[in-house]
Design a protein that fits this description.
The protein is built from nine helices and eight strands. It is α/β, with parallel strands linked by helices. It starts with a helix and ends with a strand. InterPro entries: Methyltransf_25 (IPR041698), SAM-dependent_MTases_sf (IPR029063). Keywords: Methyltransferase, Transferase, Ubiquinone.
Length: 242
């Protein structure tokens, strides 16, 4: 299968999904509870996908502005369509490595792995306003007793997966301190997998080889987590520079 065919099949599956990874509005509420965001808070939603977290981010200040950015064209288009005409939101097609505006909160749900925790935190530090913070979720092992199925899946997807202590160590090595940390809930995972399940079922009939391969991988991702959710998940960390 060529890379182009695989990419096209991936976006066929993911187009019009409400989320691009596990998460729920309560994650934003919890993260913001550690912060004293100003009334006119400047917030970045980095690698925003279709914009699933924008509404929750807007609710955390009286007169906020959210700058949401992503490199994927159709995610940017979806977020722009949803927030068209709302001057509280700016949606940009932009690289998460190159953010430069000043923010009170940088939010990154499930995408920091594109850069790595240390490089991301170091690169974004210049964009934090005084008392600013970064909140990010990252896949994480919760147990040393791991099934071959779970280990095999993540060895393919993200071989650098570490545990909670490993994530915390990377945060500290980047010159930050943890002010809050928790695991994403089962509800956060099902908020992603539920619509994904329905989309897979919709696309199966008539799918070509490339699309079937992508559907199979997505089915395994959901089935593996549901069978082994005690072994791994996402860790949400709220951090500030030391």
């Amino acid at each position: 299968m060529t890379t182009d065919l695989a990419k096209e099949a991936f976006f066929t599956l993911h187009r019009d999904l409400p989320r691009e990874g596990p998460g729920e509005a309560g994650d934003v509420v919890w993260a913001a509870s550690f912060l004293d965001l100003p009334a006119r808070a400047q917030i970045a939603d980095v690698a925003c996908g279709p914009g699933a977290d924008i509404e929750a981010l807007l609710a955390e200040a009286e007169h906020p502005h959210v700058t949401a950015l992503d490199l994927t064209e159709h995610f940017v288009a979806a977020a722009r369509q949803q927030w068209r005409g709302d001057d509280r939101v700016t949606v940009l097609k932009a690289d998460m490595k190159a953010i430069s505006n000043p923010y009170d909160l940088i939010w990154c749900a499930g995408a920091v792995y594109f850069m790595g925790i240390g490089p991301a935190l170091k690169a974004w530090r210049k964009s934090l306003l005084p008392d600013g913070a970064i909140a990010f979720s990252e896949v994480c092992w919760f147990s040393d007793d791991r099934s071959p199925r779970a280990e095999g899946f993540w060895a393919q997807q993200y071989p650098n997966t570490t545990d909670e202590a490993g994530i915390t160590a990377q945060i500290k090595d980047a010159g930050y301190k943890v002010i809050g940390q928790r695991r994403l809930s089962d509800a956060a995972w099902e908020a992603y997998f539920g619509p994904l399940d329905a989309r897979i079922a919709q696309l199966r009939d008539g799918a070509d080889a490339a699309l079937n391969a992508v559907l199979d991988e997505a089915e395994e991702e959901a089935a593996c987590w549901r069978a082994h959710r005690d072994e791994y998940g996402y860790l949400l960390s709220v951090v500030r520079p030391v």
